[in-house]
Amino acid sequence: MNRGLGLWLVWAAVGFAVLVLTAWPLGWLAYGSLRTADGLGFGRYLELFQRFSFAGVLINSWVFALGTTVFAMAVGTVLAVLVARTDIPGKPAIRLVTVLAFVSPPWLTAMAYVFLASPNAGILNVVIHGLVGVKPFDVHSMTGMIVVSGLFLYSFVFLTVESALASVDGSYEEAARIAGARMATVLMRVTLPLVTPALVTAGVFSLIIAWGLFATPAILGMPARIYVFATQLYLFLNAFPPRLELAAAMGMIFCLTAALLGLAIYLVRRPGAAGRYAVIVGKGRRPALMSLGLWRWPALLLTWGVSTLAVFLPFAVIGFMSVNTAWFGDLSLANLSFENYVYVLTQYPNTARVIGNTLAIAAVETAMVLAVALGVAYLAARSDLPGREALKGLATYTVLVPSVAFVTGVLWSWIRPPFALYGTLAIIILAQAARSLPIAVRNLADGFRQLDPALEEAARIAGAGRLRVFGRVVLPLLRLVALSTGTIVFLSALRDLNTPLFLGAGSADTLTLAVTIFLFWGEGRQGESAAFTFVLLALTLAVFLPLYRREPKVQ
Fold it and tell me: C-alpha angle 292/297/298, rounded to 5°?
């Protein structure tokens, strides 16, 4: 009786936490979108289209999101196939560079390409104009936004698809090759169809992530008056007075669209359809890697060309900007010094507060997410309580909601008494925790599926209570999964710009490194912004690299 009561208390506590983190903001977002001066209605939706050219924003958002997704899918899938299915050399290095692209903040690439490809003063345009009299690049355009965002997002596609390819039974491809199929035919007719669920997941989530991107459209699009979903929401929330109802209506439109995409994932991955893609079997074996022959070196050039454009070149440019004391496009060696680092580390009055806020948010968020996710995953895997699957779904649905839309819902839910948290660190932590909860629940649920319940049964037969079994048996066995999950959540919190920018109310008490970098850039202080970016990178790599070295590498 006591054990059963204890499990119900855990269910109640975890359920309450999930409701507060995820359901409460979405409910307020729906309410805010319907609120008008005369009560509830659809007036705000009509106002969007009649007064604010929302149709143009909607078109721009779809063009940007679809273009970014297509670019990222093409690049990420090609690189994933090369690493997982061919004899291309240097695979561990390729994986590492791709992961670095994923953990790096997206605005780093945008800032670097402003330096390189601004239409008038970008270094590449200046050099080419001096040679042939034309300036071919314009990063402040829809094409520039798509390419730069794709260079960030391709890494997500790579990690998703390469992981799926590494697990696929290779006998199907071997059979196709024995039947005389060429390499390209095997890839297009056998290999890629076998990982259709991973491709659909990568594509849908890339689209949702692209909708929620703010830094890249803000840095590249807003100077050219190209507005997408995230930047238009930012303008609504920073208007005087803030247009909260319009922001909520816009957020709901994109939430409903994302729900349709979530349905697409379900249709592909539902139990009835999953059997068609059951390609990890007991008698399976890894396929012989396909020999690229003479194509090996062009493939290697392509791979490292993407790595250069996505990682090496942006890092080098931001590094140069951080030690340049003149205008960011000046290449004179006379302007190089560590003055920007001296300022941001010793002279800027808010440095300690900014770094402290960033680390505090990340640490508290990580602890909160791990605690709630462990509860959700445990109840789903080790209990037969009613509603456990619904609880898991409620904890993970936010992955389908564009980040800025969800942040708008969080603002609505905590802006008024008695829970007036707007402009505090608490509201930032709550919003970021809700956004990170899905990946934590998924990872820990996968960890529970790998644990044989017999181990826990043996401990209970020996007289250990459920709590003791959890602490002495389950947690030690899940420590590596929990460590990697906590690291992912922590890194995500370090680089998050949308949440503290939208919910911090512009207060110095809520400044983070990401917000400070963005504000410095907007003020034309590119060198100091770049220096702070490298401080953030140093924190990111200090957390990431030790864990990466501990993970086993699959050749």
Answer: 95
